[in-house]
């Protein structure tokens, strides 16, 4: 499922931006280090200010697991993505969905 891969890339960028910004890198330095477009980094910096590291790391880890399950065929692609979304959105609202 292409959507999972896109989200995986976005969360990877968010994590990298968060870590580099915490180390004191400027927006331009982050763009250069990651070889990403400066505007994309600017938007990511706005997002990471509102998101705790652990929340980003948990989502990224879940997306990696989902992508692995999809590629190995251990679960239907659509079902794997839906389960990830249910679990992740449930965690964000304080509800835990078992899965």
UniProtKB/TrEMBL annotation:
Keyword Transcription assigned: no
Catalytic reactions of this protein: DNA(n) + a 2'-deoxyribonucleoside 5'-triphosphate = DNA(n+1) + diphosphate
The residues the entry assigns to the signal sequence are none
- Give the source's domain of life in one word: Bacteria
Q: EC number(s) on record? A: 2.7.7.7
Q: Which UniProt keywords apply?
A: DNA replication, DNA-directed DNA polymerase, Nucleotidyltransferase, Transferase
Tell me yes or no: is Nucleotidyltransferase among this UniProt entry's keywords. yes
GO terms for biological process, alphabetical: DNA replication
| Molecular function terms from GO | DNA-directed DNA polymerase activity
Domain DNA polymerase III delta subunit-like C-terminal per the UniProt entry, residue ranges:
1-88
What is the similarity comment for this entry? Belongs to the DNA polymerase HolA subunit family.
PANTHER family assigned: DNA POLYMERASE III SUBUNIT DELTA
Name of this chain's protein: DNA-directed DNA polymerase
Q: Which species is this UniProt entry from?
A: Lacticaseibacillus paracasei subsp. paracasei Lpp49
Show the taxonomic lineage.
Bacteria, Bacillati, Bacillota, Bacilli, Lactobacillales
């Amino acid at each position: 499922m292409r959507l999972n891969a896109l989200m995986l890339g976005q969360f990877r960028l968010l994590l990298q931006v968060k870590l580099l910004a915490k180390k004191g890198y400027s927006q331009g330095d982050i763009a250069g280090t990651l070889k990403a477009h400066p505007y994309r980094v600017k938007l990511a910096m706005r997002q990471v200010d509102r998101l705790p590291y652990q929340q980003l790391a948990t989502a990224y880890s879940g997306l990696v697991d989902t992508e692995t399950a999809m590629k190995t065929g251990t679960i239907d692609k659509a079902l794997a993505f839906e389960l990830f979304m249910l679990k992740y959105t449930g965690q964000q609202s304080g509800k835990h969905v078992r899965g």
